[in-house]
């Protein structure tokens, strides 16, 4: 009788350990990379909290990592209760060395998705290949138009009547990955690059969280 009584709790403890391991294996972590204000990071993190992503799909923002110790987004991330880390790119002699150090910080979080949110670094092919299929970015134009920088002024100079923003998969070719979501805004008479950028940014804060959510909903 005493042996039976002893085995019951032991089995219960084993089941509990198994459940914890199962929950850990089902956890889907997001790592967000930023360089500046982190407004898109905040939009994603707030959507995750408001829409209960962790409870519904086991999805959570596990960490926010910046290459810039002075990035304002780090403070905002801490205010949201998110773990933050800094990997200063100026401390490394090459892009490859920086990317290797960045990967060393990302990998412990076992990310299901790495999100570039204003991360102002060109990533090496090795980094991109390692996270292929789970690395996304948002670009402030309606791709394939206006890849690269200065997109808003280029849209104005070209006489475009509309501009916008695109969420896309990251590949080794700049701004050439599969398009996941887009939003369109008008280019108004008298627009400057700054006024157009502000109008586009409001749409970025809408479509980027939705694109991240869609990524995981498709996988459920």
What does this structure look like?
With 220 residues, this protein is an alpha/beta fold. It has one domain: 3-Layer(aba) Sandwich (Rossmann fold), CATH 3.40.50. The chain has eight helices and seven strands; from the N terminus they run αβααβαβαβαβαββα. A seven-stranded mixed beta sheet has the order 3-2-1-4-5-6-7, sandwiched between helices. Strand 2, helix 4 and strand 3 form a beta-alpha-beta unit. Helix 2 (39-50) packs parallel to helix 8 and helix 7 packs across helix 8 (193-219). The termini are far apart.
Write a concise synopsis of the structure shown.
This protein has 220 residues and is α/β, with parallel strands linked by helices. It has 8 helices and 7 strands. α7 packs across α8.
Molecular shape? globular
Q: Give the structural class.
A: alpha/beta
- The fold-level CATH name is Rossmann fold
Number of domains: 1
Number of helices: 8
Average residue-wise pLDDT: 91
Tell me what portion of residues adopts beta-strand conformation: 15-25%
Low-confidence stretches: 1-10, 19-24
Count of β-strands:
7
CATH class category label? Alpha Beta
The biggest beta sheet is recorded as:
7 strands, mixed
Helix content: 40-55%
Distance separating the two termini? 45 Å
The CATH architecture assignment turns out to be 3-Layer(aba) Sandwich
Q: Biggest sheet: strands side by side, in what order?
A: 3-2-1-4-5-6-7
Order of helices and strands: HEHHEHEHEHEHEEH
């Amino acid at each position: 009788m005493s042996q039976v009584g002893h085995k019951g709790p032991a089995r219960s403890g084993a089941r509990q350990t198994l459940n914890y391991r199962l929950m850990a294996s089902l956890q889907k972590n997001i790592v967000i990379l930023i360089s500046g204000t982190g407004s898109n990071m905040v939009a994603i993190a707030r959507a995750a909290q408001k829409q209960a992503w962790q409870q519904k799909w086991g999805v959570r923002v596990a960490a926010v990592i910046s290459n810039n110790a002075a990035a304002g987004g780090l403070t905002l991330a801490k205010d949201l209760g998110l773990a933050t880390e800094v990997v200063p790119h100026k401390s490394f002699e090459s892009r490859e060395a920086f990317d290797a150090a960045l990967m060393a910080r990302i990998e412990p979080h076992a990310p299901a998705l790495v999100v570039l949110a204003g991360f102002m670094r060109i990533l090496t092919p090795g980094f991109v290949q390692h996270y292929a299929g789970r690395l996304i970015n948002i670009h402030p134009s309606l791709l394939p138009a206006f890849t690269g920088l200065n997109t808003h002024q280029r849209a104005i100079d070209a006489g475009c009547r509309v501009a916008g923003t695109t969420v896309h998969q990251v590949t080794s070719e700049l701004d050439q990955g599969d398009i996941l979501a887009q939003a369109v805004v008008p280019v108004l008479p008298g627009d400057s690059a700054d006024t157009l950028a502000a109008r586009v940014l409001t749409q970025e804060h809408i479509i980027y969280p939705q694109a991240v959510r869609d990524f995981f909903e498709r996988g459920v």
